[in-house]
């Protein structure tokens, strides 16, 4: 398979396209309740669940409505999470960012490292003006993560999604290009 996503690199990570041979890695962490409980998914049970997720990554890339990178540690190479864009509107120069990470790797700064690289790619390469993050109110860790990276909470979207048999409220967070430029220049 041709790699249709650019490979992104950080200090500790390589972000790359997820392929069918990564299904076992996805199943290992997406089968955990603590990982999927705020994603609108039920825990994966079979390799087919993981293959279906990989198929979704490929379909959003083909439709140009999104792109999802597998998060891998440089020294390991196995997929331990994913991060990327969905619901991209080229006409309006915006996309939603999403991410998840195996609970084995929580609290090590890895999700933030991946998120920062993907956000930078979105503003600099995709020429996005706005990146959104929709997060369940109970998902405090993801709220802290996006806030640390400069996202602003805009409000609560009540009963915004129907997933896993229930309606979910979601906080709308956003970062616009001016916020990114301001934050980036401050860090230089």
Short description:
The chain has helices at 23-30, 33-36, 47-62, 110-124, 140-148, 177-187; strands at 8-9, 13-17, 67-73, 79-89, 94-101, 130-135, 152-163, 166-176.
**Class based on secondary structure composition and strand pairing:** alpha+beta
| First-residue to last-residue Cα separation | 38 Å
Order of helices and strands: EEHHHEEEHEHEEH
**What is the overall number of helices?**
6
Q: Would you identify the regions where 5 or more consecutive residues have pLDDT less than 50?
A: none
Coarse morphology: globular
Total beta-strand segments: 8
Estimate the mean pLDDT confidence.
Answer: 92
Note the topology.
Blueprint: E1 8-9, E2 13-17, H1 23-30, H2 33-36, H3 47-62, E3 67-73, E4 79-89, E5 94-101, H4 110-124, E6 130-135, H5 140-148, E7 152-163, E8 166-176, H6 177-187
Parallel strand pairs: 5-6
Antiparallel strand pairs: 1-2, 2-3, 3-4, 4-5, 6-8, 7-8
Helix pairs in contact: 1-3
Structure description:
The chain is 34% helix and 33% strand. A hairpin with a 3-residue loop joins β1 (8-9) and β2 (13-17). The protein has an 8-stranded mixed beta sheet, sandwiched between helices. 32% of the residues are buried. The protein is an alpha+beta fold and 188 residues long. It is globular. The protein contains 6 helices and 8 strands; from the N terminus they run ββαααβββαβαββα.
What are the main properties of this structure?
33% strand, globular, alpha+beta, eight-stranded mixed beta sheet, single chain, 188 residues
